[in-house]
Predict the 3D structure of the following.
Amino acid sequence: SERLKAGLARTRKQWGGGLAHMFGLRKIDEDLLEELESTLLMADCGVEATSHLIDALRKRWKRDKLETGDQLQAVLVEELTALLSPLEAPLTADTHKPFIIMVAGVNGSGKTTSIGKLARWYQSQGKKVLLAAGDTFRAAAREQLITWGERNGVDVIAQQSGDAAAVMFDAVNAARARGVDVVLADTAGRLPTQLHLMEEIAKVRRVITKADGTAPHEVLLVLDANIGQNALAQVKAFDAAAGVTGLVVTKLDGTAKGGVLAAIARQCPKPLRFIGVGEGIDDLRPFHAREFVDALFA
Ligand code: GDP
């Protein structure tokens, strides 16, 4: 879609537009593959995904006797789509009621904004949504969530004082009483010094399970695309603490590092539930590999 294309403008410029230009004028040779390799590395695909793609391209070049850059670009589109397709796994959130989504991520990743956008998304799917202000360490996080809820007519469970456990128990009870379909539970993204974020995240997960024996039904990790390769370390740390079952990658519009999705696919594959391509309330969309790759090269 046009909106996705616009959102991905910078990444596209880095490796779509740049590559289209590079490919269009050339015959395929090792120099071209080498240039392509640096472009993919600069777009933060990481060494593993980059060599996987370059190897695949070299094989196809020889096997299919490709000659022009255009032909090679078509193969890259194909290979990239194949690499990213396993990440495509929409989160319908209808296997439990309430379906409890624990949302984690470091401050600044776009966690709060994404919760607001997710609420809007699930509302648009006809679901009743409840927010739980589980970041009890940061008053601003709570206020931001409350404001968002007021503006959009979504109930928010928050407590002035009290810990995440109390908020989560409240939220689960309220969700049951009010016939809520989806609970989006915010969690801390940074703690006062000395306390360890990963211990808090693990604790919140246990608390949610205490409140509802089958929950959390999804542990979503929000990642800022701008952190590039550091995303891999964040996935590993949060996964070890709380068992990450899905990812949201934000700010793909503001970065030339869209290649990080390829690195994730290759090195720590997790379902990529949604991508953020702008600050607007509707700028969060389910990830579709083909649509994403097409938007990059369009
Ligand atoms: P939190 O600290 O993780 O809760 O982060 P916030 O939700 O407050 O977001 C931090 C900043 O990133 C805000 O200015 C958001 O508007 C911005 N942001 C979040 N998601 C996106 C996105 O997909 N694209 C862009 N351009 N900005 C985003």
Summary: The longest strand covers residues 218-224. The two ends are 10 Å apart (CA to CA).
